[in-house]
Each structure stands twice: as structure tokens, then as C-alpha cells.
Design a protein that fits this description.
single chain, mainly beta, five-stranded antiparallel β-sheet, 1 helix, 10 strands
Length: 192
């Protein structure tokens, strides 16, 4: 009888990889209202009106806006056109880092299938760095919720970049925007 190399060892388990914390560069993309300022055409959201209020509506006299709470994608910003015109929801001072790729994502729907168009612009000053105006997927807004996701690589000209969501609707059209995020694209590390 020969017996060799006997061992009893504890079974090793592969540790679960840590989930990185992903920062949303789009301030209050969940549209959380400030206390006591939840309705009306001029309500404040979790950030305060003033220097720290990172997003706002341009052409505000052409729209009414309110908060649609507890949709299937959380709180939604509801924008209603008063006339046929362009409207911009602007978020200023996005901190892009040159050379990095970011994932822009949001949920969108309209009150009817007739909404003309909706698309994002990424700008720096007056220079348009990224425009989805010609992207049919980004523009085709219907009465059903749809998630739109695209990638953008900062090229060094967007240090204090602006993200504009462009609304182009008919009178009394309603648009709902929810769960907006801009996050750095995560890469899967190669196994060791």
C-alpha cells in the first residue's frame, strides 16, 4: 500500500468583484423636489435657485412645467408647449474630463404620438460638440416610455460643457423626461 501527498485544505471562494460607485454628473436627474416647492410653473428642485441651480428652462414663457411624481421611472419633469416653438432644458457646468467616454441616458415619452422632435446637444460656449438632431432613434418620441442611451467622448473643448435637451413641439404637446444620467463609461478589467 502506497499513500502520498495527502492534504486537507479549506475551500477557496472567488471574491465578488466590488461594484464601483458611479457618479451622476447630471445634477438631480431624478427630479427630486425641494420641500414646499413641488408644483407650479416656477418650482425649485433639490438644488436651489441661484448660482448653484445647475439646470433651467430657456424660453420659459413658451411652456408650463410641473412634476409628475412616481412614474414607472421615478419622478418626471413634465413640459407643456404653449405654442409651436423650440424649448431648451439646459444643464450647465458638466465636468467632463478630456479623453474619457461618458454614457448619457434618459427616459422620455410624449402625451401623444404627434410630438415633433426631441434631441440632446452637448456644447461649450457656442460650439456644438455633439448633436443627435439627425439621429432618428433620439428624435422619435411616442406616447410610450423609451430609454435613450448614447456615448460621448470629451475632446478637451467641453471643460464646462452644457447639455441642452431640445424640445420642438406643437401647442399643448406634453413631454415627460425622467431618470437623466451622465456617467463615466465603466470598463471591465481583464482577468488576472
Amino acid at each position: 500500500l502506497y499513500l502520498a501527498d495527502v492534504s486537507i485544505t479549506e475551500k477557496q471562494t472567488t471574491p465578488e468583484p466590488e461594484t464601483p460607485v458611479v457618479e451622476n454628473l447630471y445634477t438631480n436627474g431624478a427630479f427630486v423636489p425641494a420641500a414646499g416647492a413641488e408644483t407650479g410653473t416656477d418650482f425649485a428642485l433639490a438644488t436651489t435657485l441661484g448660482a448653484d441651480f445647475s439646470w433651467y428652462l430657456l424660453n420659459r414663457d413658451q411652456v408650463t412645467w410641473s412634476l409628475e411624481k412616481n412614474t414607472e421611472h421615478g419622478n418626471a419633469l413634465k413640459v407643456t408647449s404653449k405654442k409651436n416653438d423650440n424649448i431648451r432644458l439646459r444643464h450647465a457646468n458638466i465636468s467632463w474630463e478630456n479623453g474619457k467616454t461618458y454614457v448619457v441616458s434618459y427616459w422620455i415619452k410624449a402625451s401623444e404620438n404627434s410630438f415633433r422632435e426631441f434631441f440632446p446637444l452637448i456644447t461649450s460656449g457656442t460650439t456644438i460638440n455633439y448633436n443627435t438632431n439627425n439621429d432618428v432613434v433620439a428624435r422619435n418620441v411616442t406616447a410610450e416610455w423609451k430609454q435613450v442611451t448614447f456615448e460621448y467622448t470629451a475632446d478637451g473643448t467641453t471643460d464646462t460643457g452644457i447639455v441642452d435637451f431640445m424640445f420642438n413641439g406643437y401647442t399643448d404637446d406634453c413631454l415627460y423626461l425622467a431618470d437623466v444620467s451622465i456617467t463615466e463609461k465603466q470598463t471591465t478589467p481583464e482577468p488576472e
